[in-house]
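Possible race condition, two jobs.
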Amino acid sequence: MQDKYTFEYAIIRIVPKVEREEFFNVGVILFCKRKKFLGIKYHIDPEKLKVFCSDVDLSVFEDYLKAWELICQGSAEGGKIGAMEVSDRFRWLSACRSTIIQSSKTHPGLTDDPQSTLEEIFQKQVL
């Protein structure tokens, strides 16, 4: 029997018009402290984005999410936040905000493989 590890995850949402409070899921951030794992997976459906807001540039959202990915990786290109401890990076990414990219409240779980769990949640909640 493999050990199970606690993890937390948040769903990444795009809110094209913040004042309308409409959103759709585009990704997942998953953090597993004991495995020192912080991962992100995202996909923006351009057609769905057009339905929500026809006058927005897809590249704006992609640039923001690429920055989030650099922070998850702890990359130097992730700036000061990317240099923080893994848990602090997760807390920063999953913090409540009122911008065009938001994350849900965090949810807990148990896993023996954080990467496959990230993929599974992504398939269920985003695609």
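Job #2 (started ~2 s after job #1):
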Amino acid sequence: MDAKERRGAILQLLRNETLPITGGELAARMGVSRQVIVQDIALLRSGGQTIFATPEGYLIPAGASTGARRVIAARHGDVAGMRRELEIVVSRGGTVVDVSIEHPVYGEISAPLHLRTRAGVDRFMANFEQDDISPLSLLTGGVHLHTIEAPSAAAMRRILTDLAEAGLLVE
């Protein structure tokens, strides 16, 4: 398989999956190194393909959501609060699409997350719990924004109520 065929196969795999696929998994399926996959993804993106690199792997976003979508302002002071926040959202059927902060020098800083499962939250949180890595919200005293998607307006209300009850929303 040549490079063009491989990139087509990568696109097809990502389009057929609803969950992210890691670079390592794509490399194994294509019989190439992870670095080749990183280069292929960069070329696909430069060619106009929308491919997100999330903590769980690569993902092509699904079509327009039929549920609810909302940007929330949240605050937590530590990694345990961050885990609690993410777990509330995914355990109620929601997706944490991204995180952003408003930095006084750089302006808005944003990162895609696309966390929608407990396993995804566990993998994401391992970065903070096992290594000495600080979350983006540390730059703003714990205050940050998330785009949240839920399958319905009722599910979104449950998510927001539970986040508020946990003291994680900025109101």
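The beta strands are 52-54, 57-59, 68-75, 95-103, 107-115, 143-150.
Logs attached separately.
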